[in-house]
Amino acid sequence: MPLTKYMIRHVHWPLMERWKGNRTRTYIRELQDAQHLTNEQLANRQADKLRNLLQHATAQIPAYQDYRSEFSEDLSQPAERLRQLPILTKKSFRETSDRYLAPDVPPATLIPNRTGGSTGEPTRFYLDRATVERYEAARWLGLSWHNIGIGDPCVMIWGNPLELNQQQSRAFRWKERFLKNRLLLSAYELRESQIPAYLRLIRSFSPTYLYGYASALHLFAELILQKKETLGIPLKAIVSTAESLQPFQRESMEKAFGAPVVNEYGARDGGIIAYECPAGRMHAFTDNYYMEIVDPITKEPVPPGKPGLLLVTDLHNYVMPRLRYELGDIVQLAAEPCTCGISYPVLDQIDGREDDMFLSRHGHYVHGHYFNHIMRNLESFYTFQIIQHAPDHVSLKLVKHPEKYDPVEEEMFLASIRKSLGDDVTIDVSYVDQIPPSASGKFRYAIREFPLSGVTR
Ligand SMILES: [Zn+2]
Question: How far is the CA of 278 from the centre of ligand 1 (A)?
Protein backbone atom coordinates (compact mmCIF):
# COMPACT_ATOMS: atom_id res chain seq x y z
CA MET A 1 0.00 0.00 0.00
CA PRO A 2 1.54 3.38 -0.95
CA LEU A 3 2.87 5.37 1.98
CA THR A 4 0.47 8.35 2.00
CA LYS A 5 -2.57 6.10 1.84
CA TYR A 6 -1.14 3.84 4.57
CA MET A 7 -0.40 6.83 6.81
CA ILE A 8 -3.88 8.30 6.32
CA ARG A 9 -5.66 5.01 7.05
CA HIS A 10 -3.52 3.68 9.86
CA VAL A 11 -2.12 6.80 11.53
CA HIS A 12 -4.03 9.97 10.71
CA TRP A 13 -7.58 8.59 11.00
CA PRO A 14 -7.00 6.63 14.23
CA LEU A 15 -5.38 9.75 15.70
CA MET A 16 -8.32 11.93 14.65
CA GLU A 17 -10.61 9.44 16.35
CA ARG A 18 -8.59 9.40 19.54
CA TRP A 19 -7.74 13.06 19.86
CA LYS A 20 -10.66 14.79 18.27
CA GLY A 21 -13.37 12.20 18.85
CA ASN A 22 -13.97 11.87 15.11
CA ARG A 23 -16.67 9.22 14.54
CA THR A 24 -16.81 9.09 10.75
CA ARG A 25 -15.82 5.42 10.61
CA THR A 26 -18.48 4.54 13.19
CA TYR A 27 -21.05 6.32 11.05
CA ILE A 28 -19.84 4.49 7.93
CA ARG A 29 -20.45 1.20 9.75
CA GLU A 30 -23.94 2.36 10.80
CA LEU A 31 -24.80 3.23 7.20
CA GLN A 32 -23.33 -0.09 6.07
CA ASP A 33 -25.54 -1.97 8.54
CA ALA A 34 -28.62 -0.09 7.37
CA GLN A 35 -28.02 -0.86 3.69
CA HIS A 36 -28.73 -4.56 4.30
CA LEU A 37 -31.93 -4.14 6.30
CA THR A 38 -35.37 -4.98 4.94
CA ASN A 39 -37.54 -2.05 3.86
CA GLU A 40 -39.61 -2.44 6.99
CA GLN A 41 -36.59 -2.48 9.31
CA LEU A 42 -35.15 0.56 7.55
CA ALA A 43 -38.48 2.40 7.85
CA ASN A 44 -38.72 1.58 11.58
CA ARG A 45 -35.19 2.76 12.23
CA GLN A 46 -35.95 5.97 10.35
CA ALA A 47 -39.24 6.47 12.25
CA ASP A 48 -37.42 6.18 15.59
CA LYS A 49 -34.91 8.83 14.54
CA LEU A 50 -37.67 11.08 13.23
CA ARG A 51 -39.66 10.73 16.45
CA ASN A 52 -36.62 11.76 18.53
CA LEU A 53 -35.91 14.68 16.24
CA LEU A 54 -39.51 15.94 16.41
CA GLN A 55 -39.45 15.66 20.18
CA HIS A 56 -36.25 17.67 20.32
CA ALA A 57 -37.34 20.28 17.77
CA THR A 58 -40.72 20.97 19.33
CA ALA A 59 -39.18 21.14 22.82
CA GLN A 60 -36.09 23.20 22.02
CA ILE A 61 -36.26 25.02 18.70
CA PRO A 62 -38.16 28.34 18.76
CA ALA A 63 -39.45 27.87 15.19
CA TYR A 64 -41.18 24.60 16.15
CA GLN A 65 -42.23 25.23 19.74
CA ASP A 66 -45.82 26.09 18.80
CA TYR A 67 -46.33 22.40 18.00
CA ARG A 68 -45.01 21.21 21.34
CA SER A 69 -48.20 20.44 23.24
CA GLU A 70 -49.94 18.89 20.24
CA PHE A 71 -46.98 16.68 19.30
CA SER A 72 -46.11 15.62 22.83
CA GLU A 73 -49.52 13.92 23.16
CA ASP A 74 -48.89 11.45 20.38
CA LEU A 75 -45.81 10.84 18.25
CA SER A 76 -46.64 7.25 17.33
CA GLN A 77 -46.81 8.17 13.63
CA PRO A 78 -43.93 10.64 13.30
CA ALA A 79 -44.14 10.89 9.50
CA GLU A 80 -47.76 12.01 9.72
CA ARG A 81 -46.84 14.55 12.38
CA LEU A 82 -44.02 15.86 10.22
CA ARG A 83 -46.48 16.49 7.38
CA GLN A 84 -48.43 18.82 9.65
CA LEU A 85 -45.46 21.19 9.70
CA PRO A 86 -45.06 23.81 7.00
CA ILE A 87 -42.56 23.25 4.21
CA LEU A 88 -39.40 25.20 4.90
CA THR A 89 -38.24 27.15 1.85
CA LYS A 90 -34.74 28.56 1.62
CA LYS A 91 -36.20 32.03 1.63
CA SER A 92 -38.21 31.61 4.82
CA PHE A 93 -35.25 29.87 6.48
CA ARG A 94 -32.94 32.74 5.50
CA GLU A 95 -35.33 35.33 6.90
CA THR A 96 -35.79 33.65 10.28
CA SER A 97 -32.74 31.42 10.59
CA ASP A 98 -32.03 32.46 14.20
CA ARG A 99 -35.25 30.74 15.24
CA TYR A 100 -33.92 27.36 14.05
CA LEU A 101 -30.82 27.38 16.22
CA ALA A 102 -30.92 25.28 19.38
CA PRO A 103 -30.36 27.38 22.50
CA ASP A 104 -27.59 26.49 24.91
CA VAL A 105 -25.32 25.00 22.27
CA PRO A 106 -21.74 26.10 23.02
CA PRO A 107 -20.77 28.39 20.12
CA ALA A 108 -17.42 26.61 19.80
CA THR A 109 -19.19 23.42 18.73
CA LEU A 110 -21.10 25.12 15.92
CA ILE A 111 -19.70 24.80 12.41
CA PRO A 112 -20.85 27.66 10.20
CA ASN A 113 -21.60 26.92 6.56
CA ARG A 114 -23.27 28.65 3.65
CA THR A 115 -24.39 27.91 0.15
CA GLY A 116 -22.42 29.43 -2.70
CA GLY A 117 -25.35 31.57 -3.75
CA SER A 118 -25.21 30.42 -7.38
CA THR A 119 -28.97 30.78 -7.55
CA GLY A 120 -29.49 33.86 -5.46
CA GLU A 121 -28.67 34.91 -1.96
CA PRO A 122 -26.41 32.60 0.03
CA THR A 123 -28.08 30.62 2.80
CA ARG A 124 -26.16 30.54 6.08
CA PHE A 125 -26.61 27.75 8.56
CA TYR A 126 -24.89 25.77 11.33
CA LEU A 127 -24.02 22.15 11.71
CA ASP A 128 -22.26 20.26 14.44
CA ARG A 129 -19.25 18.02 13.94
CA ALA A 130 -21.29 14.83 14.12
CA THR A 131 -23.55 15.95 11.27
CA VAL A 132 -20.58 16.84 9.07
CA GLU A 133 -19.06 13.44 9.85
CA ARG A 134 -22.30 11.70 8.90
CA TYR A 135 -22.23 13.46 5.51
CA GLU A 136 -18.63 12.37 5.07
CA ALA A 137 -19.59 8.83 6.06
CA ALA A 138 -22.31 8.77 3.40
CA ARG A 139 -19.76 9.79 0.77
CA TRP A 140 -17.31 7.10 1.89
CA LEU A 141 -20.05 4.48 1.83
CA GLY A 142 -21.01 5.51 -1.72
CA LEU A 143 -17.38 5.41 -2.80
CA SER A 144 -16.94 1.99 -1.16
CA TRP A 145 -19.56 0.61 -3.56
CA HIS A 146 -16.92 1.28 -6.23
CA ASN A 147 -13.99 -0.15 -4.23
CA ILE A 148 -12.67 3.28 -3.27
CA GLY A 149 -11.57 3.65 0.34
CA ILE A 150 -10.22 6.19 2.81
CA GLY A 151 -6.82 7.48 1.74
CA ASP A 152 -7.12 6.49 -1.92
CA PRO A 153 -5.55 9.24 -4.05
CA CYS A 154 -8.01 11.62 -5.67
CA VAL A 155 -7.69 14.39 -8.22
CA MET A 156 -10.31 17.01 -7.65
CA ILE A 157 -11.38 19.41 -10.41
CA TRP A 158 -12.79 22.20 -8.34
CA GLY A 159 -13.45 25.89 -8.05
CA ASN A 160 -10.92 27.90 -6.10
CA PRO A 161 -11.30 26.50 -2.61
CA LEU A 162 -10.94 29.59 -0.45
CA GLU A 163 -9.55 33.07 -0.48
CA LEU A 164 -6.21 32.29 1.08
CA ASN A 165 -3.00 34.16 1.58
CA GLN A 166 0.25 32.49 0.53
CA GLN A 167 0.98 30.88 3.86
CA GLN A 168 -2.58 29.62 4.31
CA SER A 169 -2.53 28.38 0.77
CA ARG A 170 0.66 26.36 1.38
CA ALA A 171 -0.85 24.88 4.55
CA PHE A 172 -4.05 24.07 2.66
CA ARG A 173 -2.16 22.34 -0.15
CA TRP A 174 -0.05 20.37 2.31
CA LYS A 175 -3.16 19.21 4.15
CA GLU A 176 -4.87 18.27 0.90
CA ARG A 177 -1.84 16.34 -0.30
CA PHE A 178 -0.74 14.49 2.82
CA LEU A 179 -3.82 14.27 5.05
CA LYS A 180 -6.36 13.75 2.30
CA ASN A 181 -4.20 12.43 -0.55
CA ARG A 182 -5.89 14.87 -2.85
CA LEU A 183 -4.58 17.00 -5.69
CA LEU A 184 -6.72 20.03 -6.52
CA LEU A 185 -6.92 21.40 -10.03
CA SER A 186 -8.77 24.61 -10.67
CA ALA A 187 -11.92 24.44 -12.76
CA TYR A 188 -11.44 28.13 -13.59
CA GLU A 189 -8.22 27.46 -15.49
CA LEU A 190 -9.59 24.72 -17.67
CA ARG A 191 -8.66 25.73 -21.18
CA GLU A 192 -7.03 24.08 -24.12
CA SER A 193 -3.52 25.41 -23.46
CA GLN A 194 -3.56 23.97 -19.92
CA ILE A 195 -4.47 20.44 -20.93
CA PRO A 196 -0.94 19.02 -21.45
CA ALA A 197 0.14 20.37 -18.04
CA TYR A 198 -2.99 19.01 -16.33
CA LEU A 199 -2.50 15.59 -17.94
CA ARG A 200 1.13 15.47 -16.79
CA LEU A 201 0.15 16.38 -13.23
CA ILE A 202 -2.61 13.79 -13.08
CA ARG A 203 -0.48 11.01 -14.58
CA SER A 204 2.34 11.60 -12.10
CA PHE A 205 -0.07 11.80 -9.14
CA SER A 206 -1.74 8.57 -10.35
CA PRO A 207 -5.13 8.92 -8.63
CA THR A 208 -7.60 6.12 -7.96
CA TYR A 209 -10.45 8.42 -8.97
CA LEU A 210 -11.33 11.88 -10.23
CA TYR A 211 -13.88 14.04 -8.44
CA GLY A 212 -15.52 17.28 -9.56
CA TYR A 213 -18.46 19.26 -10.87
CA ALA A 214 -20.24 17.60 -13.78
CA SER A 215 -19.71 20.63 -16.04
CA ALA A 216 -16.00 20.95 -15.17
CA LEU A 217 -15.29 17.24 -15.65
CA HIS A 218 -17.22 17.33 -18.90
CA LEU A 219 -15.33 20.34 -20.20
CA PHE A 220 -12.03 18.72 -19.22
CA ALA A 221 -13.06 15.51 -21.03
CA GLU A 222 -14.10 17.43 -24.15
CA LEU A 223 -10.79 19.30 -24.27
CA ILE A 224 -8.86 16.01 -23.92
CA LEU A 225 -10.90 14.41 -26.69
CA GLN A 226 -10.43 17.42 -28.97
CA LYS A 227 -6.69 16.98 -28.60
CA LYS A 228 -7.22 13.30 -29.46
CA GLU A 229 -5.72 12.36 -26.10
CA THR A 230 -6.88 10.04 -23.32
CA LEU A 231 -5.86 10.03 -19.70
CA GLY A 232 -4.05 6.71 -20.10
CA ILE A 233 -3.98 5.60 -16.45
CA PRO A 234 -6.37 3.13 -14.81
CA LEU A 235 -9.05 4.79 -12.69
CA LYS A 236 -11.76 3.14 -10.62
CA ALA A 237 -14.25 5.94 -11.17
CA ILE A 238 -14.95 9.51 -12.15
CA VAL A 239 -17.18 10.96 -9.46
CA SER A 240 -19.45 13.70 -10.71
CA THR A 241 -21.15 15.95 -8.20
CA ALA A 242 -22.95 19.22 -7.48
CA GLU A 243 -24.86 19.48 -10.78
CA SER A 244 -27.26 17.16 -12.54
CA LEU A 245 -25.26 14.84 -14.74
CA GLN A 246 -26.39 14.57 -18.34
CA PRO A 247 -25.99 11.41 -20.48
CA PHE A 248 -23.82 13.25 -23.05
CA GLN A 249 -21.52 14.43 -20.25
CA ARG A 250 -21.20 10.91 -18.90
CA GLU A 251 -20.43 9.60 -22.36
CA SER A 252 -17.52 11.96 -23.09
CA MET A 253 -16.07 11.55 -19.57
CA GLU A 254 -16.05 7.78 -19.91
CA LYS A 255 -14.38 8.08 -23.30
CA ALA A 256 -11.70 10.57 -22.22
CA PHE A 257 -10.91 9.09 -18.82
CA GLY A 258 -11.54 5.40 -19.60
CA ALA A 259 -13.48 4.66 -16.41
CA PRO A 260 -17.10 4.50 -15.27
CA VAL A 261 -18.76 7.71 -14.13
CA VAL A 262 -20.35 7.63 -10.67
CA ASN A 263 -22.94 10.25 -9.82
CA GLU A 264 -22.96 11.80 -6.36
CA TYR A 265 -26.06 13.75 -5.36
CA GLY A 266 -25.41 16.23 -2.63
CA ALA A 267 -26.06 19.82 -1.69
CA ARG A 268 -24.07 22.26 0.38
CA ASP A 269 -27.10 22.85 2.61
CA GLY A 270 -28.29 19.25 2.49
CA GLY A 271 -25.25 16.99 2.72
CA ILE A 272 -24.67 13.81 0.71
CA ILE A 273 -28.13 12.63 -0.22
CA ALA A 274 -27.66 9.80 -2.73
CA TYR A 275 -24.96 7.87 -4.57
CA GLU A 276 -24.88 5.81 -7.72
CA CYS A 277 -24.39 2.07 -7.18
CA PRO A 278 -22.52 -0.33 -9.50
CA ALA A 279 -25.86 -1.17 -11.16
CA GLY A 280 -26.10 2.48 -12.21
CA ARG A 281 -28.93 3.61 -9.95
CA MET A 282 -29.03 6.34 -7.30
CA HIS A 283 -29.58 5.13 -3.74
CA ALA A 284 -30.73 7.71 -1.19
CA PHE A 285 -29.24 7.53 2.30
CA THR A 286 -32.50 7.31 4.17
CA ASP A 287 -30.70 6.37 7.37
CA ASN A 288 -29.56 10.00 7.43
CA TYR A 289 -32.67 11.66 5.97
CA TYR A 290 -36.38 11.51 5.91
CA MET A 291 -37.39 12.36 2.35
CA GLU A 292 -40.66 13.58 0.88
CA ILE A 293 -41.41 14.22 -2.78
CA VAL A 294 -44.24 16.69 -3.46
CA ASP A 295 -45.88 18.41 -6.41
CA PRO A 296 -44.09 21.74 -7.03
CA ILE A 297 -47.33 23.72 -7.10
CA THR A 298 -49.88 21.88 -4.92
CA LYS A 299 -47.19 20.59 -2.49
CA GLU A 300 -49.14 17.32 -2.18
CA PRO A 301 -47.09 14.08 -2.04
CA VAL A 302 -46.48 12.44 -5.43
CA PRO A 303 -46.30 8.62 -5.81
CA PRO A 304 -43.16 6.72 -6.93
CA GLY A 305 -42.60 7.09 -10.66
CA LYS A 306 -43.70 10.74 -10.67
CA PRO A 307 -41.27 13.66 -10.44
CA GLY A 308 -41.65 16.20 -7.68
CA LEU A 309 -39.93 18.63 -5.39
CA LEU A 310 -37.64 17.01 -2.82
CA LEU A 311 -38.06 17.89 0.86
CA VAL A 312 -35.36 16.67 3.20
CA THR A 313 -35.34 16.34 6.95
CA ASP A 314 -31.85 15.70 8.21
CA LEU A 315 -32.36 13.19 11.03
CA HIS A 316 -29.17 14.06 12.90
CA ASN A 317 -28.72 17.82 12.86
CA TYR A 318 -29.95 18.74 16.33
CA VAL A 319 -28.17 22.09 16.55
CA MET A 320 -30.15 23.64 13.71
CA PRO A 321 -32.95 21.33 12.60
CA ARG A 322 -34.52 22.17 9.27
CA LEU A 323 -37.65 20.05 8.91
CA ARG A 324 -39.17 19.52 5.45
CA TYR A 325 -36.45 21.67 3.94
CA GLU A 326 -37.03 22.44 0.27
CA LEU A 327 -33.70 22.02 -1.46
CA GLY A 328 -35.14 23.19 -4.76
CA ASP A 329 -34.36 19.95 -6.64
CA ILE A 330 -36.75 17.88 -8.71
CA VAL A 331 -36.43 14.13 -8.18
CA GLN A 332 -38.42 10.97 -8.70
CA LEU A 333 -38.64 7.89 -6.50
CA ALA A 334 -38.31 4.63 -8.44
CA ALA A 335 -41.25 2.29 -8.50
CA GLU A 336 -38.94 -0.77 -8.66
CA PRO A 337 -36.09 -1.66 -6.29
CA CYS A 338 -32.51 -2.00 -7.54
CA THR A 339 -30.93 -5.36 -8.36
CA CYS A 340 -27.64 -4.60 -6.58
CA GLY A 341 -28.73 -5.72 -3.12
CA ILE A 342 -28.52 -2.30 -1.42
CA SER A 343 -31.78 -1.58 0.43
CA TYR A 344 -31.64 2.21 0.29
CA PRO A 345 -34.48 3.50 -1.93
CA VAL A 346 -33.74 4.46 -5.51
CA LEU A 347 -34.13 7.93 -6.98
CA ASP A 348 -34.83 7.30 -10.63
CA GLN A 349 -34.37 10.77 -11.84
CA ILE A 350 -32.56 13.70 -10.36
CA ASP A 351 -33.53 16.40 -12.70
CA GLY A 352 -31.66 19.26 -11.26
CA ARG A 353 -33.00 22.38 -9.79
CA GLU A 354 -36.56 23.52 -9.71
CA ASP A 355 -35.27 26.88 -11.00
CA ASP A 356 -34.06 25.06 -14.12
CA MET A 357 -37.64 24.18 -14.98
CA PHE A 358 -39.37 26.55 -17.31
CA LEU A 359 -43.08 27.14 -17.49
CA SER A 360 -44.66 27.21 -20.94
CA ARG A 361 -47.43 29.58 -22.03
CA HIS A 362 -49.75 26.54 -21.85
CA GLY A 363 -48.84 25.90 -18.21
CA HIS A 364 -46.58 22.85 -18.83
CA TYR A 365 -43.19 22.36 -17.28
CA VAL A 366 -40.26 22.28 -19.67
CA HIS A 367 -37.04 21.16 -18.09
CA GLY A 368 -33.85 23.07 -18.93
CA HIS A 369 -32.36 19.77 -20.16
CA TYR A 370 -34.74 19.92 -23.10
CA PHE A 371 -32.80 22.86 -24.55
CA ASN A 372 -29.55 21.08 -23.84
CA HIS A 373 -30.65 18.00 -25.77
CA ILE A 374 -31.48 20.08 -28.81
CA MET A 375 -28.27 22.06 -28.60
CA ARG A 376 -26.25 18.84 -28.54
CA ASN A 377 -27.22 18.15 -32.14
CA LEU A 378 -26.21 21.60 -33.39
CA GLU A 379 -22.62 22.30 -34.34
CA SER A 380 -23.01 26.07 -34.59
CA PHE A 381 -22.48 26.81 -30.91
CA TYR A 382 -19.97 25.94 -28.22
CA THR A 383 -22.46 26.60 -25.49
CA PHE A 384 -25.49 28.64 -24.50
CA GLN A 385 -27.56 29.95 -21.63
CA ILE A 386 -31.28 30.53 -21.60
CA ILE A 387 -33.03 32.65 -18.98
CA GLN A 388 -36.79 32.78 -18.57
CA HIS A 389 -37.69 36.18 -17.14
CA ALA A 390 -41.45 35.68 -17.42
CA PRO A 391 -43.58 32.95 -19.07
CA ASP A 392 -43.61 34.99 -22.31
CA HIS A 393 -40.05 36.35 -22.25
CA VAL A 394 -36.66 34.63 -22.47
CA SER A 395 -33.09 35.73 -23.14
CA LEU A 396 -30.75 33.46 -25.03
CA LYS A 397 -26.96 33.86 -24.92
CA LEU A 398 -25.04 31.99 -27.59
CA VAL A 399 -21.32 31.30 -27.93
CA LYS A 400 -20.82 30.79 -31.66
CA HIS A 401 -18.40 28.33 -33.22
CA PRO A 402 -16.31 30.54 -35.54
CA GLU A 403 -16.19 28.05 -38.42
CA LYS A 404 -19.31 25.95 -38.01
CA TYR A 405 -21.87 28.67 -37.29
CA ASP A 406 -24.94 28.33 -39.49
CA PRO A 407 -27.91 30.75 -39.15
CA VAL A 408 -30.26 27.95 -40.19
CA GLU A 409 -29.31 26.01 -37.06
CA GLU A 410 -29.91 29.08 -34.94
CA GLU A 411 -33.38 29.38 -36.45
CA MET A 412 -34.00 25.71 -35.64
CA PHE A 413 -33.03 26.32 -32.03
CA LEU A 414 -35.33 29.35 -31.76
CA ALA A 415 -38.15 27.35 -33.33
CA SER A 416 -37.73 24.58 -30.76
CA ILE A 417 -37.84 27.12 -27.93
CA ARG A 418 -41.10 28.54 -29.33
CA LYS A 419 -42.49 25.05 -29.83
CA SER A 420 -41.90 24.15 -26.20
CA LEU A 421 -42.73 27.46 -24.50
CA GLY A 422 -45.33 28.94 -26.86
CA ASP A 423 -45.41 30.71 -30.24
CA ASP A 424 -45.78 34.18 -28.75
CA VAL A 425 -42.71 34.00 -26.53
CA THR A 426 -40.25 36.88 -27.03
CA ILE A 427 -36.66 35.66 -27.38
CA ASP A 428 -33.82 38.19 -26.97
CA VAL A 429 -30.76 36.68 -28.64
CA SER A 430 -27.23 37.88 -27.86
CA TYR A 431 -23.85 36.55 -28.93
CA VAL A 432 -21.14 36.36 -26.29
CA ASP A 433 -17.53 35.11 -26.18
CA GLN A 434 -18.02 32.99 -23.12
CA ILE A 435 -20.50 32.25 -20.38
CA PRO A 436 -18.70 32.24 -17.06
CA PRO A 437 -19.72 29.79 -14.32
CA SER A 438 -21.55 31.24 -11.33
CA ALA A 439 -19.65 32.30 -8.21
CA SER A 440 -19.74 28.75 -6.87
CA GLY A 441 -18.10 27.38 -10.04
CA LYS A 442 -21.28 25.71 -11.26
CA PHE A 443 -22.47 26.32 -14.77
CA ARG A 444 -26.16 26.77 -15.44
CA TYR A 445 -27.67 26.37 -18.92
CA ALA A 446 -31.20 27.29 -17.97
CA ILE A 447 -32.44 29.69 -15.34
CA ARG A 448 -36.03 30.62 -14.51
CA GLU A 449 -36.22 33.94 -12.71
CA PHE A 450 -39.82 34.11 -11.55
CA PRO A 451 -41.40 31.93 -8.82
CA LEU A 452 -43.78 29.11 -9.72
CA SER A 453 -45.98 29.90 -6.74
CA GLY A 454 -48.75 32.21 -7.77
CA VAL A 455 -48.74 30.78 -11.30
CA THR A 456 -51.81 28.75 -12.11
CA ARG A 457 -51.75 25.72 -14.33
ZN1 LIG B 1 -28.26 -0.40 -6.70
Answer: 6
